[in-house]
Amino acid sequence: MLPQALDATALSHAIQNAVVPVFLLTGIGAMLAVLANRLGRIVDFARVLEGRLPASSEKERVDTHRRLTVLSRRARLIYAAISLSVLCALLICTVIVLLFVEVFLSLKIPGLIGVLFIVAMLAFIVALICFLREVYLATVTLRIGSH
Known about the structure:
Blueprint: H1 8-52, H2 58-104, H3 110-140
């Protein structure tokens, strides 16, 4: 099944080509950890606010619903960023596999590999934009001290 021409040099070259995307996966994993942590904090705070609703006055209820609406928007942005980051990671994994398939099966698919990498980077760019938007929402609605 494997071509006879496959030698240690070709395999070594494939491994070298795959190392860079693997480092990229490490960065994406770190980003996912940050996003998951932020989502967890948003969910926890929303639950605290929802727990306060029954004992709240009408004015407090209105304020709490407003804050819950913002938290919901933030959670949706984080979910989008997580989804896009995971998509990026899956595409990078596919690129790594294709780099090896290209060597093992003597295929010429640089166009496909390039397109998948570009799509992965676009997904990550949009994930970062979602993350930036969520951070913006968190800071503009930040309440420190009593108002």
